[in-house]
UniProtKB/TrEMBL annotation:
Gene3D superfamilies: 3.90.1200.10, Phosphorylase Kinase, domain 1 (3.30.200.20). Keywords: Amino-acid biosynthesis, ATP-binding, Kinase, Nucleotide-binding, Threonine biosynthesis, Transferase. GO terms for molecular function: homoserine kinase activity. Residues 27-252 form the Aminoglycoside phosphotransferase domain. This is Homoserine kinase. CDD domains: HomoserineK_II. Pfam families: APH. The lineage of its organism: Bacteria, Pseudomonadati, Pseudomonadota, Alphaproteobacteria, Sphingomonadales. Its EC number is 2.7.1.39. Belongs to the pseudomonas-type ThrB family. Pathway: Amino-acid biosynthesis; L-threonine biosynthesis; L-threonine from L-aspartate: step 4/5.
Amino acid sequence: MAVYTQVSAEALSRFLTRFDAGELVSAKGIAEGVENSNYLVETTRDRFILTLYEKRVAAADLPFFMALLDHLADKGLPVPPAIKDRQGVEIHELEGRPACLIRFLPGVSVSHPTPAQAQAAAQAMGQMHAALADFTLERPNALGPEGWAPLAERCGKDLDAIAPGLRGDVQKAVDRVLTAWPAGLPRSAIHADLFPDNVLMLGDRVTGVIDFYFACTEVRAYDLAVMHGAWAFDGAGKRFDAEIGTAVINGYAGAFGLSDAERAALPVLAEGAALRFFLTRAWDWLNTPADAMVTRKDPLAYWRRLEFYAAHGSALFA
Ligand SMILES: Nc1ncnc2c1ncn2[C@@H]1O[C@H](COP(=O)(O)OP(=O)(O)OP(=O)(O)O)[C@@H](O)[C@H]1O
Ligand SMILES: N[C@@H](CCO)C(=O)O
């Protein structure tokens, strides 16, 4: 579920009077997603997504995310910008939470992408990187390489409750990846979480790229590494799909380009990306009560990816 904050019909109707968005017809909580509260709102004019930002999104970061979305939408990319009210304001407060009314985009996220869909999504990432070349705002990556050792430390010995010996193995993996981490690759604003559930599609066409709330300034090719890990394995991280992996790399390289240095760094970037999702999932796993209404995501699914990249990474991206 992802409705942490209930919005009353009265409060929502009042909220909508700030916009030229029509009057409230219906509002339904959206079950997908785990980070924020999302509603599908129908008015007499249109459909919108209402998002109330919860624990992981800091209000201070919203201007960066909204500027990024405006920048991409202005360049014609299928991303959902926030709707401006009559005063031109995008970021509001509702029921005590920061809130935005967001453009609704058609499409559905595919749970088992085909190579053609993976290629189209990777092309969309390439187009996004091209459009971000002149985006000047910056946001540090709180879940980037400098954050991994402290996060592993905070998970601590409880990691061994996920799998025996995991804590020591994680420390070794963090050390290994940080030692090999590339210096000097081009940096840019990136999405940083381009999983299949964050891409809306109709057939093989990308109709929406959503959920920019981890977007940050980072090594640009790291975005591609995140995508590769998220798209080219089954959910459990047990089976690698080489055809999807190739479609992701070729889709991106065809749309934006991939330098030799970036390609050579992909094995370690992919290991780093796997580590990032392993660590945040492990933290959530250890700190979310088993009976919470939120589905915990399996950290080991990303540990398996990390092991796969460590074993096969250099052959994979050659
Ligand atoms: N602009 C949009 N247009 C259409 N549907 C959207 C839009 N934004 C979000 N959705 C729908 O709402 C769902 C949840 O959105 P989102 O993934 O942003 O939630 P979240 O809680 O921030 O997520 P996550 O757990 O993936 O980080 C999506 O799966 C999608 O179905
Ligand atoms: N994509 C992340 C969740 C945060 O968006 C994961 O699957 O662990």
